[in-house]
Design goal:
Strand content: 5-15%
Distance between the termini: 61 Å
Largest sheet: 5 strands, mixed
Number of strands: 5
Order of helices and strands: HHEEEHHEHHEH
Strand order of the largest sheet: 1-2-3-4-5
Helix content: 55-70%
Length: about 190
């Protein structure tokens, strides 16, 4: 009886484990599909920002605007409305292609190449966002722009792999934000 009961319990546990593994595999595949499309990655980043803003209780048109054109003709993903009619813009799109390739690479030489390319992409993105005129005193913006990195691990990877990227960002009036740091900034 005991052996039969334990066998049934083990079989039930294996079935449950198999079901959870299948769900995890499907979730991983969905995430891989999102990360493989630059448009989908941008939408994913924007959605993550929206989720954080909703969690904090901020409301569109009252605390922030989404995709509203600024004086230069650019469209930041989000513009936060601050006291004294000041604003701060946020860019939610982020280059992840080479990071994904770095993670998936089996060979160390390929990993190193993809890591270098990813860090170069991050530097290029910083310079690209800096050139967009998201910081514009005539438009009453603060003197920096937020760039959202949609994953804590990627945010930490950037800082660990090349600490000078933070200096480059600050020199270009850009503050890099992860989901947790964005939450901290907007919940003040």
């Amino acid at each position: 009886k005991t052996l039969n009961a334990e066998t049934i319990k083990l079989t039930t546990g294996l079935k449950s484990s198999h079901a959870e593994t299948t769900k995890l595999r499907e979730t991983t595949e969905d995430l891989r599909n999102v990360l493989s499309s630059s448009q989908a990655r941008g939408q994913w980043g924007e959605r993550m920002v929206e989720d954080i803003l909703n969690l904090v209780g901020l409301e569109e048109h009252l605390n922030f605007n989404k995709q509203k054109q600024v004086a230069s003709g650019e469209r930041p993903d989000f513009t936060f409305l601050l006291p004294k009619k000041k604003t701060v813009n946020l860019d939610a799109k982020f280059p992840l292609t080479h990071y994904q390739r770095y993670i998936e690479a089996d060979l160390e030489a390929v990993q190193e190449t993809e890591k270098k390319q990813f860090l170069d992409d991050v530097k290029g993105h910083i310079k690209e966002v800096a050139a967009r005129d998201y910081v514009n005193p005539a438009d009453n913006t603060v003197d920096y722009v937020l760039v959202f990195i949609p994953n804590e691990s990627i945010y930490a990877f950037i800082h660990q792999s090349d600490p000078k990227i933070l200096d480059l960002a600050l020199e270009n009036h850009i503050v890099l934000c992860s989901p947790i740091t964005l939450y901290a900034v907007v919940s003040l």
